[in-house]
Design a protein that fits this description.
Elements lengths: L13 H12 L4 H5 L7 H9 L7 H27 L3 E3 L1 E2 L2 E2 L9 E3 L1 H21 L17 H11 L3
Antiparallel strand pairs: 1-4, 2-3
């Protein structure tokens, strides 16, 4: 009798790979995805991506790259959303929110919230500049112009089977 070692699954399935890519493209990190009980450990996912001998992983690599491109574009959109949202809190008078004559509360900027939003923006900007040079503030004079995001996505889509 073989004893079940337990643990998470490590066998590749198209369904599992598609779920990973879908969740990545919606903004979840690979760390968060791989913590789910039904998901393989992130090391196994990396093994799938690095396995060039088994042609069955080619489609997964293409879908994974496209999912990451979409994730980074969503992250760029998040930067705008975070920056555009005012962080407001009600003004307190004697410990209670001050209600104006029209029934609305008098609001003021929340400095702690503003600092938190700044940290979120700066972290995303830093991450994107490291992962995708096209989002970097620094220009390497020795580099050739890179593809636009649209060109990158088009090339990845062309690799997908019809």
């Amino acid at each position: 009798m073989v004893k079940d070692k337990g643990g998470r699954p490590s066998k590749y399935t198209t369904k599992l790979a598609d779920e990973i890519c879908e969740r990545l493209s919606s903004g979840e990190s690979l760390n968060a995805i791989s913590k789910d009980d039904h998901m393989p450990h992130r090391v196994n996912i990396m093994r799938w991506l690095l396995n060039t001998e088994n042609k069955g992983f080619d489609l997964f690599r293409t879908k994974y790259a496209l999912a990451r491109e979409i994730q980074y574009q969503n992250m760029a959109d998040d930067l705008l959303d975070i920056s555009d949202n005012d962080v407001m809190i009600p003004v307190l008078v004697d410990g209670l929110p001050f209600k104006q004559e029209d029934g609305s509360y008098l609001m003021t900027k929340d400095n702690v919230g503003v600092q938190h939003a700044r940290l979120r923006v700066d972290t995303r900007k830093w991450f994107m500049s490291k992962v995708l040079p096209k989002f970097s503030d620094k220009v390497d004079p020795n580099s050739t112009p890179s593809d636009t995001l649209a060109d990158s996505i088009s090339k990845l889509i062309d690799k997908l089977p019809n």
